[in-house]
Structures are given as C-alpha cells and as structure tokens.
Amino acid sequence: xxxxxxxxxxVKAVLTLALLTCAVLGGSPAIATAATANWVTTWQASxxxxxxxxxxxxxxxxxxxxxxxxxxxxRVSLGGARLRIVLSNAFGRQPLVVGGATVxxxxxxSTVIPGSVRRVTFGGQEAATILPGASLLSDPVELPIAALxxxxxxxxxxxxxxxxxxHWDGRQSAWIVPGNQTLARELRAGHESVLNTTAxxxxxxxxxxxxxxxxxxxxxxxxxxxxxxxxxxxxxxxxDFLATRLAPHGVAVVNAGISGARLLSDGMGVNxxxxxxxxxxxxxxxxxxxxxxxxxxxxxxxxxxAPTSLxxxxxxxxxxxxQLVAQAHSHGVRVIGATLTPFEGALPGTPLDNYYHAxxxxxxxxxxxxxxxSGVFDAVIDFDAVLRDPANxxxxxxxxxxGDRLHPxxxxxxxxxxxxxxxxxLKGIGTPNGSMPTTKQER
Length: 443
Description:
Blueprint: H1 2-25, H2 30-36, E1 39-44, E2 48-49, E3 64-65, E4 68-75, E5 80-88, E6 96-98, E7 100-104, E8 118-119, E9 128-130, E10 135-137, E11 141-145, E12 150-157, E13 161-162, E14 165-167, E15 174-178, E16 195-197, E17 200-201, E18 203-209, E19 216-221, H3 223-226, H4 238-246, E20 252-257, H5 272-281, E21 286-292, H6 295-299, H7 314-330, E22 334-338, H8 358-373, E23 379-381, H9 383-387, E24 388-389, E25 392-396, H10 410-419, H11 422-426
Parallel strand pairs: 19-20, 19-21, 21-22, 22-23
Antiparallel strand pairs: 1-18, 2-14, 3-13, 4-12, 4-15, 5-10, 5-11, 5-18, 6-9, 7-8, 7-12, 14-17, 15-16, 24-25
C-alpha cells in the first residue's frame, strides 16, 4: 500500500513539474491543449431511419452500398483552423465499417481543389467501425475553413452496408462512385454510372475548433426549416440566411430540421422529444434552440401519410412544447418559439391535397396565439405574421410561396431570416454554461 501511495505521489509530482516547465518555457503540453480546446457544431444533418418501398416518397438512395465512395458537400456556418466530422449509424442493425475518409475544399461539381485533401482518422486509425445505434467522432483535421465556406467529405465503404440511416432532404448534390476514391480530385465511374442523390449518407455533423466561447443556435424544425423547396445547391434555406447574419457575431446556426418531422409522433424521423437530446442538447456550444414544429402534427392525420391517426388537441401540443422547454432549461439552453406559417390550399394536385382543412387551420391559429402569449418561451419569432397574405391570412403571401402553398421559396426563406431581431436573439447567450436569465423581465 505504501509503495502504491508513493508511486501515485511521484506521478503527480512529475506531471506538476512538466506543467510548470511548459508554462515557464512557453510550451503547451497535450494534456492542457485537450482540456482547453473549444469545439462548436457548425453544421448538422439530423439522422433519420430509411423507409420501405411502400412509403409515399422514395428514399433516393440505394438499399446497400458496397466498395463505394460517397462524396458530399456541406456549407459550415462558423469556420476554424481545425474540424471534426460526425458519422452516424443511429438506425443501423449491424456494425458499419468506414474504410477511409477525407475532407477537402470543393471545386466545381464533384471535384475538390488539388492540395486541399486531408485524410481523416478515428482514434488515430484511417478505418473505423460504427456500432448499431452509435455515432463516430473523428480526430481533429488541420484544414482551415472560413465562415460560410463549403467542405467536401468523402467516405469509403468497403463492405456491404445496408443504408439504414440517412437524412432524406439534403438539398445538396452528392455522388456515389465505385471503389475507394476518397483521395481523388475528380470522381470517376469507369464502366459504371455515377449515382447522384440529394440525401445525406452517414455524415450528420461537422464541428470546428474556435478560440472564442463556442456559441450555437440549433433550429429544431420540419421541412420548412429543412428547406424542402429551397433551390438545390444554393444554401437558401431560412437557417442558411440566418447563419449569414449571425456569422459576424461568432454564432453558429445548426439546422436540425427534418422534412416530415413532428413534435409528438414519429414521421419521416423520430418525434422531437425523442431526438431532442441528440440533435440539440448534445451539440457542442449550443446555447439556444429555435423550435418551429407542429404543422405536420396538425395536418398529417387523415392524409395518405397518417390516414387513421387522430389530430392532437391544443393541450397535447402545448404539453409537448412545455416538455422541450423544461428539458432545454435544465441544460441552460434558451428556447425561442416560432409561430407556424399559413398553409391554405397546400399541396394541390398531389396525393396530399387534403393536407389543409379549415379545422386544422383553426388549431394552428390557436397554437400560434399560445406561442405568442403564453410566456413559456424565452423569446418568440412570429413567422406567421411575416409570410401570411394580408388579404387572406390563411394563405402564404404570393411572393413568398414556393408554389405548393405550404413551403416558402427562396424569397420567403430570406424574409424569415431577415425578420429575426438579432438583439433579442443574442440576448443572454455567451454567459457561463449558457445560463438562463433569472427573471422574466430579463428574458
């Protein structure tokens, strides 16, 4: 026992001496660097389970990947000297093998800029296995990237890999090619064809190292936040435009929207309460969350998406929101509620042309009144007031409408982001541990 005590004391003495020596000589030992590094999530694509061929919408991804490379482009909100990527096997039922990965600065199309390609490692190894239900965080990669720049991520899958986890509506071109082409400047298909998709595969997050206090807003939403009708490859979702406004303030905007998402029930992704820990609270640097959810809870019942489901009551929707707020506040995260936008006549000429009903709209308006006036939220963004047609408040204004009477187009997305009062949004963030204001007046 005395020998062990002496050895532990000796170890402590050596570590103390090493730290003091580094401080005197101006060095920074690895143990200190790891403890003081600040990481913030700068981009996200929330994982969803893939669905079967009987679902109303196609997955737009192959059922299995084998000996193939996937290259994807993502625009970050904040930049940094080093980055890390996050991969997910959240809904997989078997281990998933990653045979290699790289990050690079993208060129035109699927090309990358020569000299910018960096190998990605996981625990010092180029290959890694992601267990079922798990995620995988890479080692830091030395690739300086500026705010609002894009990065290309290439992943090689050497073994037969069932596609069980994806993000369906990435609004960004991605490429799938044969073999290990993670280091290739330009992807080549050889005798096979290049497969194109706008879904996200495996890649669910990008983090950057920052010298400042890490600060991020997460947008928890559905297809309106996911950017269902935003122009492809143009980063014109409303959270993208908000990211442009907040980047000069050193604040990241992380899009946790899922098309078809619901607050209380699983849809084209698990319900908001089930994914709140993963998509919001677990994100490094999160200090505030903007919640814009509920329209699919209200409108899906009775449609081809949920023909036998019952519409939720106002009280159950309120209870769901209150639970999100309670969980966020327990982690020192502020919650900004956003009103639901008009949808009269939504999705005409589609199998979902009964998405709208006057009774559903009445429930939306009741919920919006509660979001505005309940005092449950730390702040409120009134997107309903921004996008509605003054002559018919049940409809989107014509210049904001993408054409489907449900989703705003690029101009509507920009109007949403421009309407956000940054002073209100930034109030209270950057405090130690993202602590909440202590009084209602301070909120």
